[in-house]
Structures are given as C-alpha cells and as structure tokens.
Amino acid sequence: MPEQVQEGQTAPDFTLPATGGSPVTLSQYLGQKVVLYFYAKDNTAGCTDEARGFRELSAAITAAGAVILGISGDPLAVHEKFSAKHELPFPLLSDTDRLVSQLYGVFKEKNMYGKKVMGIERSTFIINEQGIIIRIFRKVKVAGHAQAVLTALK
C-alpha cells in the first residue's frame, strides 16, 4: 500500500474512463483548481447526498475557478445512470481496479456492520492550478461537506 498523499505535494496524475464519453486525465486541468472527491458507491444514501451537495454548489465552485471530479470503483455504465438520474454537471470517473484510489491512499480497510472490508474512504482533495494538493479532507462527513470545500476554495 503506498503512503498517503500529503498537502503540499504534486497530485499523482492518472487517466480514467469518465461519464460524458471521454477519458479524463488529471493533468489536463493544469491551470485551474480541481476538487477531486472519492466516494464508496453510486446509489447509496451518503454518496448520493454528497453528489447532490456538489451539484447544488457546482456553479459557485466553478465561479471559484475549480472543476469537480468524482471517483468511485463503480463501472462506467453505473456512473452514467447515476449521473443522469441526479443531473450531475461534473464527470464521474470509474476506478474499477482501485489503482487511483490506492495512489491517493483512500482504499482502506473499513468496518461494515462489524466486518472488515476493503473500500474507498470518503475523501476530498483540492488541487491548485499548478497541480499541488493544497487541502485534504479525510473521513468526510457528508452534511456540510460541499460547503466546506467551497469555503476552502475561496
């Protein structure tokens, strides 16, 4: 397992399949800020609320000079349906092999109903225009999270 990425370091680059038809490479966003959020699974209560939170503030986040990218291990077909159902104005990226989640140190052992399972720990990274991680939110609680990200961007 790689070390967790830290604030102040260059965000690891990657390319993943994304909703909307074209793969997304992180470095294509150099010159603008990126809100990179990792979540466990489409169509679960917390992850749906988190996506809706980012959707509701997407115009303000864009106005703050940032793009939003959501990543989970769901296949692209599931992302497409989830994105359409909730009218998400930002791409969802499919990390089915969990390599990017491991790169960012968010694929971890978690407790699910008393059982130990491997999964994505809800985490958000704010990356500046030069590709440097300037803020990390780990073990995110959904309520108020999108607003906290917007505040950190300003």
UniProtKB/TrEMBL annotation:
* Thioredoxin domain mapped to chain residues: 5-154
Q: Which GO terms describe its cellular component?
A: cytoplasm
Using the record, list the residue span of the signal peptide; answer none if the entry has no such feature. Answer: none
GO process terms (BP):
cell redox homeostasis; cellular response to oxidative stress
Instruction: Give the first-level EC class, as a single word.
Output: oxidoreductase
Q: Which UniProt keywords apply?
A: Antioxidant, Disulfide bond, Oxidoreductase, Peroxidase, Redox-active center
Decide whether keyword Oxidoreductase is in the record: yes
Which PROSITE patterns has this protein been placed in? THIOREDOXIN_2
UniProt-annotated catalytic positions: 47
- Keyword Phosphoprotein appears in the UniProt entry: no
Q: Name one GO molecular function term.
A: thioredoxin peroxidase activity
Q: Which InterPro entries match?
A: AhpC/TSA (IPR000866), Peroxiredoxin_AhpC-typ (IPR024706), Peroxiredoxin_BCP/PrxQ (IPR050924), Thioredoxin-like_sf (IPR036249), Thioredoxin_domain (IPR013766)
Q: Which domain of life is it from?
A: Bacteria
Instruction: Give the catalysed reaction(s), semicolon-separated.
Output: a hydroperoxide + [thioredoxin]-dithiol = an alcohol + [thioredoxin]-disulfide + H2O
Enzyme Commission number, as recorded: 1.11.1.24
**Subunit and partners:** Monomer.
Q: Which PANTHER family match?
A: AHPC_TSA FAMILY PROTEIN, THIOREDOXIN-DEPENDENT PEROXIDE REDUCTASE
- Protein task: Thiol-specific peroxidase that catalyzes the reduction of hydrogen peroxide and organic hydroperoxides to water and alcohols, respectively. Plays a role in cell protection against oxidative stress by detoxifying peroxides and as sensor of hydrogen peroxide-mediated signaling events.
Homology family: Belongs to the peroxiredoxin family. BCP/PrxQ subfamily.
Protein name listed in UniProt: thioredoxin-dependent peroxiredoxin
* Protein source organism: Sporomusa termitida
Q: What is the lineage of its organism?
A: Bacteria, Bacillati, Bacillota, Negativicutes, Selenomonadales
- Gene assigned in the entry: bcp
